[in-house]
C-alpha cells in the first residue's frame, strides 16, 4: 500500500478501530491468537519470538538499572534462553554489544546448550557455540557444558544433534545424567538412534534400557536387542505392576514369553482398573494368580469405567464398598449425565454395598433425575453438601427440590459467597437471583460484588449493583484488573460504583493497563502522594517495581537519576 494512503487510513480513528476489530474477528473465527501492541511491547518473550530486536532493546534499556529487581535479572535469563531456542542470535548480539551483558551471568552455559538442543535445529547448536567463542563469553570449554544438550537431543529424537554433541562428550556418569542417551532412545522407541549409540557410545549405561522400552510398549526395539545379543531377558527382572499402570499389554506378554524374572502383585489389576484397561485385566485374570482387591471396583466406578466395573461384578468375587456408588464420576466430570445415571441405578439394582449421603450429595452437581431416584429409592438421604453442590453448579432445579424436602438448615451464607466465586461457565446468575429473593438478609451479600468482580462475573456484578443496596469496595476494581476484565472495570467506573486508591493504579501499571492507570490518576479523588505509592509498590509489588518506577518517571511524577 502507498505510504500516504496508509497514513490517511490509519490516522482515521474510526477506520483504524474497524480494521483492527475485523482482524481480531477473523483471527478469532480461525482459532488464532491476537495480541494488542501494548501487550506485545511489554512482553519480551513475544518481542523475541517475532524478532523485534530494537523493541527488546528498548524494553530492557528502560528497566536495566544498577539497582534493578531480581525479577528483571530472571527475565533477562529467560530472554536469553528463548532467544537461543528460537535462533534469535541478533537479540543475543544486542544483549552483548549494546547492553554489554555477559550472558553466563544470567544463564549457565550448560542450560544454553540445553535450550539450543530443545529447538531440534542443529544449526542453533553450532551457532551458539560459535557465538559464545566469538564474544568471549566462554572461558573454558569442557564436555560438561554439552551434557544437558545431549540429554535433550536424545530424548527429542534428533540424531544429527546427538552425533554432533557426542563428539564433545565422553562417557557420561550417572551423576551427570540419570538416564543415558541409549536409555532415552529405548524409552522413545527410536531404534535408529539406539543402533548408532550402541556402536558409537558403547560405554554409556544400559541399566534402564529394557524397563524404559517395556514401560512405553517398544517391544520391537527389544526384539532387535535380543536378536543381536545385546541383552538377555532371562536375567532381567520385570515388575508387571508398573507395566499394567503404563497400559501396554504387549510389554506384559513380551516379558512372559521371553521368560523374564517376573514380579507382580494385586496392584497390577487395581491399577489397570483405575485406567479402564479391560484388555489387561482380562489377560491378568487368565494368566496370573495375584488377583485384585475391593479397590479395583471402587476406582473403576470413581473413574467412570462402567464396562470394567460390570466385568468385575460378573467375573470376580472381591467385590467393592459403598464408595463405589458414592463416588461414581468423581474423577471424570466429562462423562455424560446419562451414563452417570445408568451406573448408579445399575449399582442400586445389582449390588448390595449401598451408599452413604455422599451419593446424593455428588448427584446434586449434575442430575435432578438421579437426585430424585436416590431420594425416593434409598434411605441414606443427603447432607448440606448437596445444597452447596447444586448451587455452585448452577442447578437451581436441584436446589429447589432439595429445599422443598429438607430436614435441616441450609448453609445459605456460605453458599452465597461461594456462588459469587464460582466459574462464569457454571451460569449461576439464576441461582444468585433466587438466593437474593429468598435469603436477602444474609451477611455475605455485603462482599458479594467484590467476590463476583474478582472472579470475572460481570452478569452477577450488574445484577447485584442494580438489585441490592450493598456497594463494592476497591477489592472489586483490583480483582477485575487482575482478571483482565475491561468490561467489569468500565462498568464499575462509568457507574461510579467504586472509590480507588493508589493500590488500584499500581495494579493497573503492573498489569500493563497504562491507559487505565492514566485514567485513574486523572480522576484521583485527592492529591496523589507519589512517595506513599512507591512505598506501597516496594512492599507488595516487587515483581512490577521497575515497571512502576518507569511509568511514574515518564509522567514526571518521580525523579530517578
Automatic annotation (TrEMBL):
This is Ankyrin repeat protein. InterPro entries: Ankyrin_rpt, Ankyrin_rpt-contain_sf, SecEffector_AnkRepeat. SUPFAM superfamilies: Ankyrin repeat (SSF48403). It comes from Heterostelium pallidum (strain ATCC 26659 / Pp 5 / PN500). It comes from the Eukaryota. Pfam families: Ank_2 (PF12796).
